[in-house]
Every structure is written in C-alpha cells, then in structure tokens.
Write a structure and sequence with these properties.
Elements (H helix, E strand, L loop, with lengths): L1 E3 L6 E3 L4 H10 L4 E5 L5 E6 H10 L20 E2 L4 H5 L8 E5 L5 E6 L5 E3 L2 E3 L6 E5 L8 H13 L4 E6 L2 H4 L2 H5 L5 H13 L3 H13 L3 E6 L2 H10 L4 E3 L7 H9 L4 E4 L5 H13 L4 E6 L14 H9 L3 E5 L5 H8 L4 E5 L17 H18 L9 H10 L2 E4 L14 E4 L10 H4 L36 E4 L1 H8 L6 E5 L20 E5 L3 E2 L3 E2 L7 H21 L10 E4 L4 E2 L9 H13 L7 E5 L6 E2 L2 E2 L1 E2 L5 H11 L3 E4 H11 L3 H8 L3 E5 L2 E3 L3 E4 L8 H11 L5 E2 L7 H16 L3
Parallel strand pairs: 2-3, 5-6, 10-11, 10-17, 11-12, 13-14, 14-15, 15-16, 16-17, 20-21, 21-22, 22-25, 25-27, 27-31, 31-32, 32-35
Antiparallel strand pairs: 1-7, 3-4, 6-7, 8-9, 18-19, 23-24, 26-30, 28-29, 33-34
Length: 748
C-alpha cells in the first residue's frame, strides 16, 4: 500500500464541470477523481465507470453541469491517522484507491493498493518503499532473557525496523539420535548442543515479543515446526519469517499460508528449480510473500554471494525481494539495497566472541547502526528512473559557472538576429549556448544592450509582460537597489522588499534614491555576510554569535536610513534567517529549546527601534553558499508558535520553505498554515518540489494554491505578500509576472 499526499491530480471542486472532471480522470493513471468542497471537505468520488453508468441512464445530458450532480457519495474512505494495517483491510477487488481525510474530513491524501507489495506491521514493503531492516537476534541472546531485552533496545537504537527470533519444538524437528547426541553428523551434534543450552522457552519468547512492542519495534519470529507455529498464532504474530531450510517444506508453508499473514522467505540452500516450485506453491494459494536472496554459509565468502541474482529472483517472484546476509561487514547489504533489495536481514550480537556460530557473522550495535545509516543514504541517492532534472544545488552552480547567449552588439527591437550579433558569456543565468541556432534568423522582440542575456521567452512568439493586478491583500515584489526603479514602475505594487547582499550594505543610498518614494517597503536581510559568515543567532560559538548580532544591527541601521526615502512605512519589516543550521545531520531535539532561547537573547541585543524583525519559516534542507545544510529551528509549526507566543515575535511565512518541511515530515501544509497563521506579518508565496526544490515557478510544484488561499483567509486576509520566485527578476521580472498572473487566477 502506498500513501500519496500529492493529491492535486486526483482532486476537483464541487462547482467544477463534469467535463473538467473527465479531463482529470483521463489524465491520471487511476481513472478516478475525488470531489471536494471549496474548503477541502471530501464529498465523494467519480470513476470513469461511474460516468459511463450515468450517461447510459440519462436521456439528455449536459457536461457543463456541476460534477457534484453525478458524484458517488457512498464510497470507502479512511483517516490519514489510521493505522496502515487498518487502511489496508478496506481494500477489496472493487476498491484499490482509498481517499484519506483529516480530523475535519478534508481530503489530505490517497492510499493506493500496490499489487506488487504488502503491509508488514506499520511498514509498507514495495518497489517504492524504503528498505525494511531486520535485526536477526535469533539465539544470540544465548538463552538469557535479560540479554534478549537488552539486545532489543540496542537494535532499536541502531535503527532496526524489526527484530527477529526463532522458535523450535526440538522433539518435532530432530531425530531421536540427534536429540541424544549420538548422530553421526558432527554438525548436527554441535547445533543440538547449542540449541539445548541457549534456547529461550516459549513463554520467555512471548515476554520478549511484548517487550518489543512496548518499544515500538515489530517482533518477528521463524517457526521451525507446526507446534511452534501454533504457539505464535495464539500469541498473534503479525508476520512470519521462513528459514532457508524450510523453503522446500511445503507442509509448513501450507500452514503458514493458511494464517493469512505476510511471509518473508529466505532462499539459501535451494536450487533454482526448488525456488520456482515454492514460488508456484505460494502463488497458487494466494500467499502474500517476499523472497530474500541468501547464501547459507557462515560466514559466506564474497565470491559466492552473487548479488546479481536479486534481479533474477525478482523476475521469478513478481514481488519485492530482499537480502539475508551471513557475510562479514556491511558493504554487501548496502550494495543489495542499491540493486533493489527492499528487505535486509543481518545477524545482531553484542559480543562476537560468545559461543555459537552466528555471533561470528553478526554485526555489533555500532556496525549495525552504521549499516542502517549508509542504507538510508543510498536510498536517498537512488532517486527515480525518470527524466533527469537539474537539482537546486546544480542550478546555483550553473548560474555561476555556465555560459549564456548574450548580445555582442547593440540590438534593436525588430532586428534580424545573426551569428555575429551573439556571443557566449558567464554567468549562466540566460539561454544556454546550445540554443543559438534557434535564435539566428529570428527578429528581436526587445532592445538589447551589449552583454544582455537572451531568455527562453526570446524563442517564443508571446512575451509575458507586467500589468495591473487585483488582489485581496497588499502585494509587492522583491527588488535590489539597482533594479528597483525599472521594476516598480511596471505595476500597481503596494510595497517592495529590498533583498540585500552584504555588498549592498556598503552602498550609498543616495546613489539610488533622490526623491521620496510613494510606496511602502520591507527589507530582507542578507544571509551571507562578508568573510563567508552565515547569520546564526543560535550559535554556540560566542564570537560567531556576536558577529551575527553586529551584522543584523547594521541591517537595522540601513533599514532606518531607507525610511528617509520611503516615508509611508512607519515601522518597516526586516525578514531574517535566524540560524540554527547544522552541516551533517539534524541536531538532537533536546538541543532546540536552548537554541530558541539563544535566538531570543541575540535579538534582545539588537537595536530594533523603529523596525520590526520577523523570522522566516525555514526548510529542512536549506541551500547555503557552502552547500546544503540541515535546519533545526523555525521549521516545525508548533515550535514557531511557541517561540512567537513566548517572545512576542511575528514571522515571515515562506510557503516554499514550509511546503518542503511538510513534505519531508509528512505534515499537512493547511494545518501548518492554521498553526502559524496568527503570527504571520508577511508572506513569501512561491512553490516547492520535494524536500529541497525551492522557489520554483508557482503552479509547477507541490503546493495546492487554491486550498492555500482558503487557509490563508482564516488569519491572513490582509497580510501582504510577494512572489519570491527564484531568479524571478531576470528578463525584466518575467518570473514575477508569471507568478502574479497565476496567483490572481486562483484568488489571492
């Protein structure tokens, strides 16, 4: 089962037409849409089958009537907060898509049944899911119940999703000779000796299972016989692991299938013929299962592991596959994940020198934790097999390092472009050199000075130009000193927001402003200051924090000087990024209260007379000039609200930043808006894509702007906003005009 919160392609408003609904049904892969009210309440659904049934029963029809008239209001739905297993139970042969609501009955997500995957406890196992990581404790507790529980704690701390044990009825499994130790097989004799000494009783294992659940860790167990399976079924085990030794034991497989629980089956020691026979056996009985590639040697030589077999195993099974490893180290399971493994099982111990052959091939807690950390990095890096997109970091470097097509000579509007008129120069913020042949022979649509860049719009017949806009709330655009005059005259702006660089802080305002300006203004403080200093009012380094305070003090003084030229603004806003970032990982949440206190203490040292400092909401992975960081402050809406209430500050609500945070932490942007809304003094309205696709063109990302507009009307009907589109100022503000046209259409 997959849960998707990107619902825009499956959503239509009740007032829209049936024709519009059909267009959406045809455009998405699931052939279904969900109908919501203007405030997002789920009213029902419509499939292409519903439409066909309606049209065959209707003598005369009008596709322009409201879609609500033919909406199916009797549909299966669930709550987003419901347990995944409970949601999964609602799927039937006729229902493979389930709308998910929040506590206010608003549509906030959609659950899709994935035929190639299944739910395991609270996790989903599928081609799209993260890897499910099992710590195989087995009998490495050496018969000590206290040690078993300690290992559960260590496995949880190391990042395991699940811990696995084994249950055996010795009488059922082994021959009388083996139990007496008179077997001629030395290996069996050794194994029997270990099992006799180190098995936990069934009651002790049940105690450990309960302990796992108390630690929010899923217990899993391998039943080696029918008697043990009966004990585990009585307990209520959620799934079962099938040992390699029992993949060909179809009697035990039959009993396991009859439980209806998901099965994870190791394939070690089996030939391909035997694996295929067992797959056929499982499929014929409708089992939910995943196969684990495995080499059952302790330790397994690297030359025998053959990870390439994962792809073949997946082709044979038709479902998710994984890897159960008995080799030394952590490199192989990490590589298995890169090759598509969705389940990893590794043995877990606290001491490799303990008696028992499993300990020698097991990972210590620190090694297991490192394996989990590296697996999560690999998963993050895998991405999707889709068309390549330039990352945000690449865009930043592309602008600095790449080249653009520029005017080599003065070009007038209407001139026919020739190769001799064009040149290539850095930075790469315009049309790439590969498009020069498409420009040659065209007529210039505007005047060019020497060095002016060409843009994508110069290849098109229609240019986007500024106009007079109508909004419900005050609006403006971001400007720099040098482009203020050219941009502000283009529309009916209520204000401008000066985005300062550290170099701007040394400029003389009289070089840009002579007369008093009849427009309001705000200021966006630099984030980067001279000497590669990134503002951090929460820094533990006292000298660094003091420098941040001093630089912010300078910004306040500059803002007060700007008031001389912009007298309409009595108390200008200063937008800041207050700091609280870390380079490698997020900090422990225990650190954040102290960091917020430091921010507040730092702000008390800044002379704010005549200005108001507002702190910008932040994304989880901000792009600083030294690369991507992890942000720990002003990301969580509840923390933002607490800070504002405690220290009496207001914020700049950056929609792009908070959308990325909502995507990463699986929050709802509308709920985020409701929480921070009462403290918003100013808004940056722009789109986002994923967890770090910042400032993209509005309407091209994850933000549902219609729902956002409705949410903002609760607390921010009159709050001023601007479109902070990345590079929106280029080509005479073209990006801003596109954004403002879009926002005007959706009712801002």
């Amino acid at each position: 089962m997959l849960i998707d919160k990107k619902i825009s392609e499956y959503l239509i408003f009740e007032t829209e037409s049936i024709l519009k609904a059909l267009e959406k049904i045809n455009s998405n892969k699931r052939r279904i849409i969900f109908v919501v009210s203007e405030n997002g309440l789920l009213l029902g659904g419509l499939t292409d089958g519903d439409f066909r049934r309606w049209i065959t029963k209707t003598s005369s029809y009008d596709l322009n009537q409201k879609v609500l008239t033919i909406t199916n209001t009797n549909m299966v739905s669930a709550m987003l907060a419901d347990d995944k297993a409970d949601i999964y139970k609602k799927f039937t042969k006729a229902v493979d898509v389930i709308p998910l609501k929040d506590s206010s009955s608003r549509l906030v997500g959609i659950a899709f049944r994935n035929e190639q995957g299944f739910t395991l406890g609270k996790s989903t196992i599928s081609d799209e899911s993260n890897c499910f990581i099992i710590a195989e404790i087995g009998n490495n507790h050496n018969g000590d119940l206290g040690l078993a529980k300690k290992m559960v704690d260590l496995a949880r701390d190391a990042g395991a999703d699940c811990v696995k044990f084994q249950m055996r009825n010795m009488t059922s499994i082994y021959t009388a000779d083996a139990q007496l130790g008179t077997s001629s097989d030395l290996g069996a004799e050794y194994t029997m000796d270990l099992l006799k000494k180190f098995q936990l009783t069934n009651n002790e294992l049940v105690d450990v299972f309960d302990y796992c659940k108390s630690k929010n860790l899923m217990p899993l167990c391998t039943p080696w016989d029918l008697e043990s399976l009966a004990v585990l079924e009585e307990y209520g085990m959620e799934a079962y692991k099938v040992a390699s030794a029992d993949l060909t034991n179809h009697e035990l497989l039959e009993a396991l299938i009859e439980t209806g629980k998901p099965l994870i089956c190791s394939t070690g020691m089996s030939t391909e013929f035997e694996i295929k026979r067992s797959i056929e056996f499982l499929r014929a009985r409708g089992a939910t299962f995943a196969l684990l590639h495995c080499n059952s040697t302790y330790p397994a030589p690297f030359k025998d592991i053959n990870l390439a077999y994962l792809a073949r195993l997946k082709d044979m099974s038709g479902g998710p596959v994984g890897y159960s490893g008995h080799e030394r180290g952590i490199s192989v399971p990490i590589a298995a994940v890169a090759l598509g493994a969705k389940i990893i099982e590794k043995h877990f111990t606290i001491d490799k020198s303990m008696e028992g052959n499993d300990h020698k091939v097991s990972l210590l807690p620190k090694d297991f934790a490192l394996m989990v950390e590296e697996i999560r990095k690999v998963e993050e890096s895998l991405g999707e097999n889709t068309q390549r997109k330039i990352s945000q970091g690449e865009l930043l470097n592309r602008e600095t390092l790449a080249k653009s097509i520029v005017a080599k000579t003065i070009i007038s509007n209407g001139d026919k472009l020739t190769k001799e008129m064009l040149d290539f120069r850095s930075p790469g913020d315009g049309l790439q050199p590969m498009y020069i042949d498409q420009l040659i022979g065209k007529r210039a649509k505007r005047d060019f000075a020497i060095g002016d860049c060409f843009y994508e719009s110069d290849l098109k017949d229609v240019r986007v130009e500024a106009k007079k806009y109508k909004f419900k709330r005050p609006f403006g655009i971001p400007v720099r000193y040098h482009d203020y005059e050219k941009l502000v005259e283009k529309s009916n702006f209520d204000f401008v927001e000066f985005h300062l660089s550290y170099q701007d802080m040394s400029l003389d305002l009289r070089d840009f402003f002579v007369e008093k300006q009849a427009i309001n203004f705000a200021v966006h403080s630099p984030e980067l200051f001279e000497g590669d200093h990134i503002m951090d009012l929460a820094s533990e380094d006292e000298l660094y924090r003091k420098k941040s305070i001093a630089e912010l003090d300078r910004v306040c003084k500059i803002t007060k000087n700007l008031k001389t030229f912009f007298p309409l603004t009595e108390k200008p806003l200063i937008v800041i990024n207050a700091g609280g970032f870390s380079t490698r990982n997020f900090l422990d949440k225990k650190c954040t209260p102290r960091m917020y206190e430091k921010v507040a203490a730092s702000l008390r040292e800044v002379n704010q007379d005549g200005v108001e400092i507002i702190i910008q909401t932040m994304p989880p992975f901000p792009w600083h000039f030294g690369g991507q960081s992890h942000h720990n402050l002003f990301v969580n809406p509840y923390e933002i609200r607490e800070f504002c209430e405690k220290f009496e500050y207001r914020i700049c609500y950056d929609i792009s930043h908070s959308m990325m945070a909502s995507t990463y932490y699986q929050w709802e942007l509308n709920e985020f808006t409701d929480i921070v809304g009462p403290f918003v003094a100013h808004m940056h309205i722009v789109d986002a894509l994923g967890v770090d696709g910042e400032g993209i063109e509005v309407g091209q990302g994850d933000v549902d702007f219609k729902l956002l507009s409705l949410s903002l009307n609760k607390h921010n009907k009159h709050t001023m906003f601007l479109p902070e589109v990345w590079q929106g100022h280029k080509n005479k503000g073209e990006g801003f005009w596109k954004a403002l046209e879009f926002l005007e259409r959706v009712g801002f």
